[in-house]
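ok posting inputs for the magnesium ion job
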Amino acid sequence: MIPVEEALERILARVGVLGDEQVPLTRALRRVLAGSVVSSLDVTPWPNSSMDGYALRSADTRRASTTAPVRLSVSGRVAAGHVATRALGAGEAFRIFTGGPVPDGADSVIPQEDVSKDGGAIVVSRPVKTGDFIRPQGEDMRAGDGVLDRGRLLGPAEIGLLAALGRCQVRVLRRPRVGVLSTGDEIVDLGGHPGPGQILNSNTYSLMAQIDEAGGEPISLGVAADRLGDIEARLRWGLDCDLVISSAGVSVGEHDFVKAALERLGAEQHFWLVDMRPGKPIAFATIPSAGKRALPVFALPGNPVSAMVTFELFVRPALLRLGGHARLQRPMVRAIAEAPIANPGRRRGYLRVTLSVGEDSGYRARLTGDQSSGILRSMVAADGLAVVPGDTTVEAGGTVPVILLRDVR
Ligand code: AMP
Ligand code: MG
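and the output
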């Protein structure tokens, strides 16, 4: 049995970043940038006004005051999308609107609400500082600036920035294709009717959703019976995926054939038992293949919670690595236990907790209830996983590290 950290090290040592592809900018949300982006433009391209007002020469207003205001004749106009037809001279002001290019000769803008009008002139009763209300050229980005790093997850702001640079296509990392196999004589897939002793398949669907959430493309490999040949055949079906996950059939029972099936496919096993609860039996293997990188395979435990939690701890970081993400781990927070959080077993506990935010803005954690690994409703209630060493109780008021699974409202 190895610690979680060691297991993760062995996984990440064998998982590399996939290749890239081009997608339209409008399809790039939540994708990962394949190369760093250097600005090809100055944004903004030229000095422009940040207010509706008047462009002028600050020197003309140097001695302006309420008792000795300065009159400037308004002799030009620059709306956004247009340029002045001539330079501004001494004693002049040009009407200008937000986004309008500052005319040559002007060095500042005074907002319209700060002047009074007098026929074809404005009256300025205070000095205007050079550069006032002018957004300088390249205020946002300068040509040659490195603006986004490889591995950056693209969100709305990054998409906007790429649009501002005129990029309608973006090179992003390929989404990992992930095969998901459920195993077990008792498992009936959706659409079927469980007979005596049978239950519906939930693991395939929770795992496919976790894959999707982690940026992968889930592919169901169906449900295999507890027969070596059946499991082997369905795993073979997944050989051209970027990663394969199975659930159940990985313990030491007489009906547990997943490891044997992997062996038949030439897999090299890198670990099997990890010091954690839920989910001790979780095997990680790679299947070598001529001319391409070895296929990582995770044989997850069958209990619905164990499958989801081992996915969180091991498969998710592997998927994020494949997909080129710079950050592989969920955020970890410290929470105060509202009631005792006990881990009675010898193995390190990843206990399901509901989180709330206290008046001091700190997190409070409470166990979701029964921590049995068959209780999917405890995952529904879980905002995070409290990490508690074996044979340890965190008393009420004590702090506990929690892996954040989702935003807490
Ligand atoms: P196993 O790892 O094969 O011993 O399975 C552990 C438990 O998980 C058993 O109670 C199984 O019935 C249950 N289980 C296995 N696969 C699934 C699945 N796909 N959906 C829901 N429960 C499952
Ligand atoms: Mg079984």
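notes: Residues 182, 184, 186-187, 199, 201-204, 247-249, 251, 301-304 surround adenosine monophosphate (ligand 1) (CB under 6 Å). The mean pLDDT is 96.
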